[in-house]
Predict the 3D structure of the following.
Amino acid sequence: MRTQVGIVGAGPAGLMLSHLLHWHGIDSVVLECRSREYVEHRVRAGVLEQGSVDLLCRTGLGERLQREGMRHEGIELRFDGESHRVPLTELTGRAITVYGQQEVVKDLIAARLDAGGQILFDVDDVRLDGLDTDSPVIRFRRDGREEELHCDFVAGCDGFHGVSRGSVPDGVLTTYERTYPFAWLGILAAAPPAVDELIYARTERGFALYSLRSPEISRLYLQVAPDEDIADWPDERIWAELRARLETVPGWSLNEGPILEKGITPMRSFVVEPMQWERLYLAGDAVHIVPPTGAKGMNLALADVALLGDAFAAWYGEGRTDLLANYSRTALRRVWRAQHFSWWMTSMLHRLDGEDAYEAKLQSSTLRYVATSRAYASSLAENYVGLPEV
């Protein structure tokens, strides 16, 4: 097979890049090791920044998003038995939209297939060769047969455990990372949300987040130990702990219902530089991961490929090489801003292992400053809804 850009990975980054390339008249083929059913139903992030919403709508993917997505103009901070709202839209003129990552993926897959795009699911043994030549080759197996995809460029959008980053020679990439001493236990529950906006709660028992996915489905998280066993968390214990951490404001209670899914997610920060080598360009979780506290993961992936789509369009349409040459440097400015914001939110809201009274007081003081200072609240708000340019 032959295409212009070979894309490894059918998550939001890979699919969005293929969609953008199609808009620019550039051919691509997407390779994915999982099945279509799997990638369309894996539950991941659900908060879209204003810029991500604008990108999806501008490229023809906004119909269902605007109909089913839930626009939020603020978030709530709970600490010391008090509740404080951060008015995102009032402070920035922008908002966030709650719309699950799996829904974005469904919309992207439908759009690519409707346009005649090629997405090859269930491939395995993917290998990248010739990345330092002008004719890279992606070799893989499909239905038991060896196949080759020849292309001009390769986009590695295959996540942290994918093969793309590992195809770069030793010594080229530099890794920056931090592992946090806690994890998130997340549940998806068939319970109508008892909130209109997300609640971030810090308590002496640990952090909790009340989010939502639809008028009928709630998404909730608890801070737990990084080595926690999900088997030790029956539904009754989860609900009891959520009540203890969230029902700290008089007269408010959460809605409970059957738990549809539950799992434990470790917390880490991870960045690799540069995000490109020769004819390989990396995007999304393949080169950066943030703790989910700042709701930046999917948004960073979409921002990466928006840059990459424009860079490929300039190369093919005008013969310009500057945008591709500067892709990594440009993308990393936003990546590091999001890294700092996610670290700050995480540090401010989570109970630290072995935390003493001094550290707890500092966290409360920081939260109160955010809640009462318009300048500090504006900083949180503009980072949360997404900075237009960095």
